């Protein structure tokens, strides 16, 4: 393995490329969907959605919850009398929370999650969280965030959740690194392990797996973001005095190496030490990507806006898998977060923010890409028209970060092309 060299950007990247901004009909899940992975990550938390029966059905369908299961999320149903103002929704919420906590004494953190119905009737969940915290402290900490689909895409639910946690984190002056973003435990352990081998003294994660794991914030806190949709969380941490380490996101060998390099530079790790720690996993990642991306090399890809992972994934596919991007659509473009990835994508693809789904479908049909990355609602119709598709939501639920998952990530994109080849026989 050669010694690490700085990532070489293309002569002209997409950092200053014009952005096609469209506001029309959108095709995305709402932020409530994020509860499905958040409740698995934060092991002593409960997510109580204040919403309608439709909200409850969405979560049950997304999580595949059987009727006899007892997951750590639920819905406080807003009935017609609540929506009509014939009942005191705050009194009913207090009563349901008390019943829940009496039945589930293992809950240490309770998130009140707003929905479209609760926002329409202007139910103040922030005040409710303050009131319930006073009633149930210190055993339970009550926070609130919105998962409403009125203006959010589904990954913004995690952003809202983590941002709601930042103001209540204790102050600390300790020098530390904070890894921000909900990752599968195995992936988090791999990344934290590599960072520890680099010699970084203290590494914390937000969210932590338990309320018992103390996470503080202060002027000596440096943080690096693992998910490109955490704009509000980044702003909240910066507001507390923490310092953001900007880097490409850890997808593939190049992205993971550059992401770890940002950490190494911030903590004065020598190039020799960096190469020693990363050489073996980098070699494994390169080998795995080469094997999995044979079907991707020379193929074109079109991204519909869905998960907000689109820009760093386009960087991975174009630079590490030999694909060409026709259009890279994202619900929102946080340049402070995805700017380093944009700089590495060679000019050429259309960069779009927001969506007018009919107009974007027209562009996709005209381009006839080899692979289309889109939401579930668009995939089957496009498959029927002869286009190979990849479900964007699968990329959120599947471990794809870091060196050890780099080959799996390439294989996720190659699988639809393999399926299409099989159907053509």
Offer a quick outline of the entry.
The protein is 44% helix and 16% strand. By secondary structure, the chain is of the alpha/beta class.
Flag low-confidence runs.
Answer: none
Helix/sheet category? alpha/beta
Radius of gyration (Å)? 22 Å
Per CATH, which architecture of the domain at 19-26 and 284-424?
Answer: 3-Layer(aba) Sandwich
Mean pLDDT: 91
- Largest sheet report: 6 strands, parallel
Distance between the termini: 40 Å
* Strand arrangement across the biggest beta sheet: 1-12-11-10-13-14
DSSP E strands, number: 14
Q: How would you name the CATH homologous superfamily of the domain at 19-26 and 284-424?
A: Nitrogenase molybdenum iron protein domain
* Name of the CATH class of the domain at 19-26 and 284-424: Alpha Beta
Question: What's the helix count?
Answer: 17
Helix content: 40-55%
Query: CATH fold name of the domain at 19-26 and 284-424, please?
Result: Rossmann fold
Beta-strand fraction estimate: 15-25%
Shape: globular
Topology:
Layout: E1 19-23, H1 35-41, E2 45-51, H2 53-63, E3 73-77, H3 80-83, H4 89-103, E4 109-114, H5 116-120, H6 125-136, E5 141-146, H7 156-165, E6 176-180, H8 185-198, E7 203-206, E8 221-225, H9 231-239, E9 243-244, H10 252-266, H11 271-292, E10 300-303, H12 310-320, E11 324-330, H13 335-344, E12 350-355, H14 357-367, E13 371-374, H15 376-384, E14 389-391, H16 394-397, H17 406-424
Parallel strand pairs: 1-12, 2-3, 2-4, 4-5, 6-7, 6-8, 8-9, 10-11, 10-13, 11-12, 13-14
Helix pairs in contact: 7-9, 10-11, 11-17, 12-13
Task: Explain what the structure shows.
The protein has helices at 35-41, 53-63, 80-83, 89-103, 116-120, 125-136, 156-165, 185-198, 231-239, 252-266, 271-292, 310-320, 335-344, 357-367, 376-384, 394-397, 406-424; strands at 19-23, 45-51, 73-77, 109-114, 141-146, 176-180, 203-206, 221-225, 243-244, 300-303, 324-330, 350-355, 371-374, 389-391. By secondary structure, it is an alpha/beta fold. Among the domains are: 19-26 and 284-424, Rossmann fold (3-Layer(aba) Sandwich); 31-152, Rossmann fold. The strands form three sheets. The protein has a six-stranded parallel β-sheet with strand order 1-12-11-10-13-14, sandwiched between helices. α12 (310-320) runs parallel beside α13 (335-344). The longest helix is centred in the middle third of the chain and has 22 residues, at 271-292.
